[in-house]
Amino acid sequence: MFKKFFKTNDSDKEIKNVPALSWKPLQSEAQLEDIKAQSNVRLQIIYKHSSSCGISSMVLRQLEKSLIEFNGRADFYFLDLLSFRSVSNEVVSRFQVLHQSPQLILLKNDTVVAHDSHYDLLQLPIEKYL
User: Fold this and answer.
1) Which residue has the higher pLDDT, 115 or 20?
2) Is 24 helix (H, G, I), strand (E, B) or coil?
């Protein structure tokens, strides 16, 4: 009887076997200038995450699975909004992107080329900007 309740399915195993993305923690406003400069070399991706938001956590799991194919072809930054609110505010100011959470921001050649939030961020055409 307990095996039914604690049984794992194949999709659970699949999630656990996905290689980890190379997230870089975004923890200071100074990093934003580096990110902007690096956007001239290759695509920069910022994920704004709220650990108190269930949607943010669900989106993060799906996002990591969908972004893994771009590992090594773009730089991935993880911004914890609750711990680094001032950095999030600077993202709004510097890149002129309204604050939302969860949110994905793509930078290429000093410019925000795409951004979206909530489940819609999973539909961003990342390949187009590589």
Assistant:
1) 115
2) strand
Domain limits at 102?
Answer: 19-129
Whether residue 37 is contained in a domain is answered as yes
Alpha-carbon gap, residue 53 to 51, rounded angstroms: 6
- C-alpha neighbours within 13 Å on the C-beta side of residue 90: 16
pLDDT at 20: 76
Residue 61 lies in a domain: yes
In a domain, 83, yes or no: yes
Within 8 A by CB and 6+ apart from 1, the residues are none
- Given this model, what pLDDT does residue 98 score? 84
Model pTM score: 0.83
How many distinct structural domains can be found in the chain?
Answer: 1
pLDDT of the residue at 2:
40
Residue 9's Cβ-count burial label (10 Å; 0-12, 13-18, 19+) is: exposed
Which structure tokens are listed for 116?
């979206």
Instruction: List the structure tokens of 63.
Output: 């996002």
CATH no. for residue 92? 3.40.30.10
